[in-house]
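Assemble and predict.
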Amino acid sequence: MSKRLTYLKTGLWALVGVLASVTVIRFAYGLGAVTNLSDGTPWGLWIGFDVMSGVALAAGGFVLAAVVYIFGLERYRPFVRAAILTAFLGYAAVAVGLFYDLGLPWRIWHPLVNWQYHSVLFEVAMCVMLYLTVLALEFAPVILEHPLFDRPFFRSLLRGLKRISILLVIAGIVLSTLHQSSLGSLFLITPDRLHPLWYSSSIYVQFFISAVALGLMTVVLESLFSGYFLGHKVHGRELAGLGLGAAAVLGLYLALRLGDLAARGILGMAFDGSWQGALFLFEIGVSAVIPMVLMLIPSVRSRIGGVGVAATMVVGGMILHRLNVSIIAFARPEAFSYFPSWEEFAVTLGIVAGAMLIFLFFVEHLKVFDDVQGHVDPEPRRFEPSTVRDLMAPSRALPRRYSLALVGGAAVALLFLPLDGAEYQPAPAGAPRWVEGAVVSRADAPAVLGFAAAAAAGAGGAVAEPRRVTPGGAEEKLLLLIDGNRAAELALFDHEAHEARLGEGACGSCHHLNLPLDEGSSCSECHRDMYAPTPLFDHGVHEAALGGDAGCAECHVEGEPKTMASATACSECHEASGSEVIEAPADRWAPAAGYMDAMHGLCVTCHEQAVAESPNEHPEGLAECSTCHDPDLREQRDRLAPRKQGEPGAVAVGRAPRK
Ligand code: HEC
Ligand code: HEC
Ligand code: HEC
Ligand code: HEC
Ligand code: HEC
Ligand code: HEC
């Protein structure tokens, strides 16, 4: 075996090692720990490359199958097995990549039982699963031909598979056609997000046609690749044929794509000097125009180098196209600018490396290419650590070398990985606001709170002064809009009604600590972060406020240790008159809980208590999420106060992107 191959495999194993380490962190701590993804950029490199480009690169499988089995161009038969193997590995890689990308990967099988007929993504999922099965069956004969399976059972299995092979080929072509195009259809719902030079109402046709050209060129590149590393024969004349075929398809693709832009009258956008225009020209040039022209020149086509250059351009260019559509030319609020983290690159590369290793394994042990069957690693010439040489047979040396690469890769990756999990992103909490609200009382369920304007509109009237009963039966009054992070969830709170229920002067049951001289300090003054606790006590502030040295005695007793436990309780000065609700050690210092926990600690605790103590006096469901979290409320608010893209609050913000 060539030295090149050994080096290649060593490199690939090292990448798989890095992947192994990243995998542990990814699944131990979640997406936030290793990716730059956010609620504003949920689809990143793993979708853009692993899925979008991975599927397209696998197109060679169905294209070659069609060329040979349907159109009967027998001279391309030597490429079919390799193309199908690549397609199989490509799709398997897509599936593996999805496991990394899905928030709840263990639910990946759900589309099988929860059918969503109207969802393009459902079609994509089903096609991937079905086509992966078809590819496995298409490739199975190659495995069954191995001497290992020379048994009566496997022989009849093999015969059976060969008999239905034409059905499999047809199924494969149908599924691929559906699926290559539906990856494009996914973007039909993004006319306002995707740049017009890429968006098109016929984007799915473009995806399909470009996949055909890309598939042909991938086969070329792969044949050159295995020729270089495995030293088998390269069929120059056939490669030229594939190149010419690709040129024809690229011509069609260009006509469609440019024609579509021209028909919409926006072809000029490509030359308007914007970076998108330049990117578009570059992409079209590299992925289609130049390789097409090259392949039309007979003297270039007939040279292996010529085909190789064109194939490289098409493959690189089309991957760029998929990345442009799914990431680069896709508009998102500035707060969510995205560049993949190194871990995302590592996963992508690691999966590709793993697939390549499996490809090489199959090529070496099975009859994938005519002339490299049974190619087994001979003894290595280099790398013989003398310490272990005598312990192991020479035939173990290569596996040893690859294991070392694997472990080395994993170890190096560990040095740079966030072993303590995702870095927390601060999410400052803000004060509540008073809004004109509407309360609809119901007999045996908690009253429903809404926005007055929305309620009035629903009842056919105009917005009226607060505290008026609308014809629809809603009482209009001022409500508190609680939305600490101005985003994902909000709650309307009838402060007045709650105050009244607890009686005069019961402010302290909820406002368990106040700032000096204040009566109802906003909880967000102290519970300052939406999710994380805030350490509050500032010794310097208190010294200054309490008269410096003269004030020490306010908190410390002479002769006792100056600690938290011995100091005067916060509530002595920060007035918390008999807090009913909070049984936390309100007398001792502790960091103030996150805003969400403070709210739930107050509201949910009391609602649960109320229900537990006197179930008959309170409506059913008082302690359930829906009493405070009404999904309609957000819609109402968004409808009443439309915002422009990029403004805070316009997009659901759960976590800010990791910096
Ligand atoms: C008695 C009222 C009440 C009940 C019941 C309640 N919550 Fe909340 N919840 C709140 C309030 C108030 C907030 C703070 C809202 C804000 O600041 O955005 C909140 C915040 C949240 C947040 C954070 C929202 C964000 O913007 O990040 C989540 C998530 C949440 N609640 C989930 C739940 C779930 C799940 C349940 C049911 C198990 C539930 N809540 C029950 C009152 C309630
Ligand atoms: C049932 C619990 C409860 C009771 C009782 C209560 N409050 Fe509140 N109050 C709240 C909550 C919850 C908020 C809003 C959350 C926040 O401030 O972040 C609030 C907000 C306020 C605000 C507005 C703060 C701001 O930043 O705009 C004032 C003022 C206030 N309360 C005063 C009082 C007074 C005075 C009393 C006694 C008469 C009282 N509250 C009784 C729970 C209560
Ligand atoms: C408002 C109450 C208050 C006042 C006034 C106050 N302290 Fe403290 N002091 C505390 C608390 C509470 C702690 C514990 C803080 C902690 O553990 O983080 C503390 C801790 C200390 C410590 C130990 C610090 C350490 O890092 O271990 C010293 C020393 C101290 N105080 C001295 C003083 C002196 C001197 C004054 C007057 C100039 C003073 N304090 C005024 C509340 C107070
Ligand atoms: C002896 C009375 C006293 C005690 C005990 C006390 N404080 Fe204060 N605290 C004050 C005074 C007075 C101020 C006013 C400072 C100002 O002018 O804003 C204050 C201000 C504050 C502030 C607002 C200033 C800031 O840092 O943002 C917070 C928060 C606070 N205290 C928390 C606490 C906590 C937590 C404890 C218990 C560990 C505590 N205080 C104990 C008297 C006290
Ligand atoms: C002056 C500062 C301050 C204000 C204002 C304040 N809190 Fe707190 N809160 C704290 C501190 C400090 C703690 C932690 C110590 C303790 O448990 O008492 C705390 C604890 C709590 C807890 C217990 C959390 C747990 O982990 O069990 C709840 C619930 C709570 N606050 C709710 C509220 C609500 C609701 C409001 C507004 C109505 C509010 N707080 C206003 C300082 C404040
Ligand atoms: C001290 C106990 C207590 C606290 C604290 C409390 N609630 Fe309530 N809440 C009640 C009771 C009691 C009812 C009335 C149920 C009934 O109709 O009998 C109620 C009713 C409601 C309703 C139904 C509409 C209405 O006003 O009748 C909503 C919504 C609600 N609460 C939200 C909240 C939110 C949000 C918080 C926290 C900010 C909160 N509650 C805190 C006791 C509490």
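The chain has a mean pLDDT of 84.
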